[in-house]
Amino acid sequence: MISKQAEQAMALLGQGFQLLGPVLSHLVESEKAGTSQEPPCKKKKKMGKRSAENRLRHIQCLKCSKRGHINRDCPN
């Protein structure tokens, strides 16, 4: 006889396989087609030079309270 916990675990495992099925089939199909691209939601945006400079403008050092650098790069 299977315990109630074992039955619950098996049910959860079955649900997990149902959720993974479409993902795995997508991966298999993309490998067969030779286009192993990540789904659009997983693509990372490349940070351009301007956006990196813009980000530095907003960073504030906790040591000297000036903008444009962090503690480890503080000139003081």
Automatic annotation (TrEMBL):
Source organism superkingdom: Eukaryota
Key words, A-Z: Metal-binding, Zinc, Zinc-finger
GO molecular function: nucleic acid binding; zinc ion binding
InterPro entries: Znf_CCHC, Znf_CCHC_sf
Keyword Zinc-finger (UniProt): yes
Listed Gene3D superfamilies: Zinc finger, CCHC-type (4.10.60.10)
Domain CCHC-type: 61-76
Name of the protein described by the UniProt record: CCHC-type domain-containing protein
Record organism: Daphnia magna
